[in-house]
Write a structure and sequence with these properties.
Length: 140
């Protein structure tokens, strides 16, 4: 496989250009757009309701696929793509304890309590369809 150099001097894959985004399966795209924009500061980039929306935080994109989106169709085995699981979007935050209080006041669902380890503190919340989001504050 031929590798090329990008302008920063590092090798680039022949076919893979970059990470386009993270895709989450959701049941109601409009509800998910409201969740990510109102509670977590994402910006709506594109939407084709009721099937799909793209929200972003800086350069990072979250692709929200609802029922009927091409990114939600069943696999050839017949298995349906569903929200949830343990793989998750990780957002770096500041003042995690204060943010947790704000999100609890807003009625968001938490998967666990605030955990502290050598790398920092984290807690997991869920979007309206049960997709996990980790809020992470690095140790200082």
């Amino acid at each position: 496989m031929v590798q090329a150099m990008d302008p920063r001097g590092s090798e680039r894959h022949e076919f893979v250009e970059h990470v386009h985004g993270v895709r989450y399966q959701v049941k109601d795209v409009a509800r998910s757009v409201a969740f990510y924009t109102q509670h977590l500061g994402f910006k709506r980039r594109h939407q084709q309701l009721p099937a799909f929306a793209n929200v972003s935080l800086g350069d990072d994109q979250l692709l929200l696929s609802g029922p009927g989106a091409s990114g939600s169709r069943p696999m050839p085995s017949g298995e349906h793509q569903e929200p949830g699981g343990w793989n998750r979007l990780v957002l770096m935050v500041t003042d995690l304890p204060r943010f947790v209080i704000e999100l609890k006041r807003a009625g968001l669902r938490f998967r666990n309590e605030l955990e502290t380890g050598p790398g920092g503190r984290q807690i997991q919340i869920e979007d309206p369809d049960g997709n996990p989001i980790e809020l992470f504050e690095p140790a200082r």
